[in-house]
Structure formats: structure tokens, C-alpha cells
Amino acid sequence: MTRPLVVVSDLRHAYADGQTALHGVSFQVGSGDRLAIVGANGAGKSTTLLHLAGCLLPQAGSVRVADLLLCRENLSQLRRSVGMLFQNPDDQLFMPRVFDDVAFGPVNLGLPADDVQQRVMHALAVVGATHLSHRQPHRLSGGEKRAVAIASVLALSPAVLLMDEPTSSLDPASRRQLIELLQTFEQTLIIATHDLDMVLDLCPRTLVLGEGRIIADGASAVILSDAALLAAARLEQPLRLQACPVCSGAARRPSPPPGR
Amino acid sequence: MARIDSSLPDLSDLDGLACRDSPIHRLDPRIKLLTTLLFIVCVVSFDKHQLSALLPFAAYPVVLLILARLPPAWILRKLLLAVPFALCVGIFNPLFDRTTLLHIGSLEISGGWVSFASIMLRFALTVSAALILVASTGFDALCLALARLGVPRPFVVQLLLLYRYLFVLVDEALRLSRARAQRSFAGRGMELTVVASLLAQLLLRTLDRAQRIYLAMQCRGFDGEVRLLRRLRIGASDVLFLTGWTAILLALRFLAPAPTLGQAIGRLLPS
Structurally, how many domains does chain A consist of? Predict the structure, then answer.
């Protein structure tokens, strides 16, 4: 068996205002796996991701990515193997043109200009956004912004992709496109989300967080059909696994009054 | 907040104009920047009562406006927006300086009015030159030019980010003000104290966003320097543009050809 790519052990974190976000979280992710992290608001999903991205340092416990321990000395090296997609693409696209933005990471790695150009165009091609390369980020639609933000991370060819709510505020068609795109990825994916239907499509494994602790960790198919467990974590079954209100008649509403 | 609503489309106009193609648009941004700076220095360096010598300088914005195929109405609208600032600077001159300087027929014109007119003319010339520069170059290309000309990086990065997030900030402010208007009735809820807390809210949100942007930058290896990959190249037309305008502007500044020009035009006119 190969060694796991990401190892988190007994990770704890409290924010400066005294609020504890993580009470000892441990899990491992193998190379090429797709893991969903789900949980209520404030359960610690984003805090966990921020640690994996090297934006926060563990106050207790440890994080290892590709055998590299997360600490101040290793930060820049660790960030090369990890790509983070932030929840709001506006926070992530800060350069004047799409091309510059996707090139930002590779240029910072000190790659030669030709190499950067090639990486940028490749990353844009993967997300189907080549035609946007000379546009300005603030003029893109929500779906386009998300695609470009993903390209900006892909251009660094990270081993692990971290995503914070990738499907939030996307229209259904853009959401579907994103899911299909992510299905083609071979990188390790760790996705924090409330979109359990996406988890069903994308991630074989699910980690359920609640108040900074792991409530459950296992196969998505099992966890997402466990209504009691999901309710305890302030979640609901994916809509596709719920009874269809039309077929079952369970939620049939009174018919509207005549004459309207 | 109607003002915010209506000024944002104007800003995006700027991007649209900068994307057009014309001989002026194709010039190297550094060349345009240097020429504009020279123009501004020439215009502001005249004596405060100077009026006639300034007039020929109008050739620069007019020629550029035509060559760059920019809509004059757009420049005029933008000029009008900035007029109050120039008025504030010049409006007291006629009050303080009442010595008669000019006679037109029986009308006596004081030095104050002349210097006031001079200020307004300088304002119109310099601001329209700057507007043409931005509208024919684009903000990011201009920042790149600044960086290549040796302006310290932190300033350039500040300018780039300022322009990028201006739109986000205006959006945010707009949402806040709509939310307030929604629940304010008959002037209640529109008091200054509410505006203060709205502004405080905006500041807090901005600080939060700055933090998130910084994290996103760090995740992609930001080390304090923003590198733009674009290559700039100075060609023959760039050299010609810079030397041509430098010669013309310096001639207008130091040879004072205004009277001669005036006489020449006067001779051409049918008497």
C-alpha cells in the first residue's frame, strides 16, 4: 500500500477570539482520492482546509502533505504541492487580466516565460476558458470566475486540490459543468461543501465534522443514506436520496382554489 | 446613492475604450505616459496670468482625441465631473486680485479673472490629456509602464489592486445602501449616524476581504512582488511620437509662438 498523501493528526485550533474551531481532528487521504468534508456552519470545515493550504499553522497536532510537515520553515515548499480554491472567486482573482492571474503562481515559482505561457494556456484549456484569457476578472460571470479561479490553481500543478464550497452561487448548468470537470481530475481532491448531491457524484469518501470533531468518516454512499447521522450533524440527505414528493404523495399540497 | 449607481458604468466605459484599436492605442504605454507628463509639466509651468500662450497646447489633446478615435463627449463629461475641484482652487483669485490687467473695449478685466481663466484652461488641458492617456492605454498597461519606468513596486501593486477591487467595493457599498433604503421610510433611517455605521461596516468587510485576498496570494507564492509577463517594445512609431511631441511642446513652451500664430491665422482669415 502506498503512503497516504495527506496526514492530519489530532489537529486543534482556536481562533484569537477564544472560539475553538477544531478539537483534535485526525484523518488521512491517499494519493488520487477524493474526500468530501461536510458539516454544519462553523463545524470547522474551512479551518481544516486553511490548515492544509498552509494559511493557518497547527496550534496542536500536526499536518503532513507529501511527507512534508506543516511548519513555518516548510511553508513555501508545502504550498507548491497544495492548491486552494477559495469560496469567493473575487478574492482569488486579483490581477488585471485573466491571463496574468493564472500566470501569477507560475511566475512566482520563477519559471521561464515560455513555460509559464504554456502552463497558463493548458490550465485555461482544461477548464474551457481559453477564450477568456484577455478579459478582466471583474467582468466575468460567476461560472466563468470559478473556472478561471480553478485554472489559476491548476497552473501550479498541485498534487492536492483543496476546494471551499466550489458549487456555491453557481447556476445549475455551471454547477453541473464544474462537477463534470472535477470528475476528470486525477489530483487528490479535498472538498468542503454543503452540496451533498455533488458529494454523491464526486467523492467516494465523506468526512462529517460537527463542532470541531469528526462525527463520521467513511464511504459516501453509507454516510449520505444515514438520515439520523446527517440530522445530528445539522445536514440533510442529498435531495436525490429523499423520497420524491410527486411519486410518494408524501408532501402533496392542497390544490389551489378554483377560479384562479 | 444614485451617484454610485451611475458612475460605475462610466468606469467600465474606460475599459471598453482602452480595448479599442487605433494608432494611439498601439503606442507603447511608456511613451504615452512620458509624453503626457511632459505636456502637463509644460502647461503648468507658465506664469499665472498667462492665457494666450496656453491656447496652442490644446492641439495635443485634440490631435490625440482624433487619432485615438475616442468619443469627445465622453472626455467632456469626465471633465465636467472634475470641474468643481478646479473651481475651488481658482474661485478666490478674482476676489483677491483686483488690479486691472486688460481692457476689452470699455470693459476692465482684473488680474484675478485672468488667472482664474488660466487655471480653468490649464485644468481642462491637463485633465483631458490624462483622460486620453488612460482611455487609450488601459489601467493595467499604465501600471506596467509605471513599473518599467522605475516607480517603486509597492505603489504599482497598490494601484493595480485598487483598480481591480474598486468595482467589488462599489458593489459592496451598493448592496449596503440598497439594504438600508429598503427599510428606511420617510427620511427615517437615512440619518448621518446610519451612514457612519454603514461606512464602518464597509471598512470591516474590506479588511476581511483584504485578509482573504492576501491568503489567496500567499497560496500561490506571493513574495511581495507582482510580476506581469507582458512584453513592451518600443518601435519606430513610438520614437517618432515621443520626439515629435517633445519638439512641438518645448517649442510651444519656450519660443512663445502664440502671437505669431495668431497673426498668421489673422492673415489667413478673410478681412
Answer: 1
CA A190, A196, A202, A205 torsion: positive or negative? positive
Could B228 and A100 be called an inter-chain contact, meaning their C-beta atoms sit closer than 8 Å? yes
ipTM of the complex: 0.77
> H/E element holding A8?
strand A6-14
- Strand, coil or helix: B202: helix
pLDDT tens per residue across span A13-48: 998 888 889 999 999 999 999 999 999 998 999 999
**Cβ atoms < 10 Å from Cβ of B224:** 8
- Find cell 463534470 and name the residue: A180
Rounded CA separation A122/A112 (Å) = 16
Q: What CA–CA distance (Å, rounded) separates B120 from B86?
A: 6
Measure B173 CA to nearest chain A CA, in Å.
16
Contact A152 B163 (CB under 8 A): no
Please report whether residue A244 resides in a domain.
Answer: no
Given an 8 Å threshold on Cβ–Cβ distance, is B164 in contact with A139? no
Distance CA B89, CA B76 (A): 20
This prediction has a pTM of: 0.79
Q: Which residue in B180, B179, B178 sits closest to B188, CA to CA?
A: B180
Q: List CB contacts (< 8 A) between B227 and chain A.
A: 107-108
CATH number at residue A149: 3.40.50.300
Pairing of β A188-192 and β A160-164: parallel
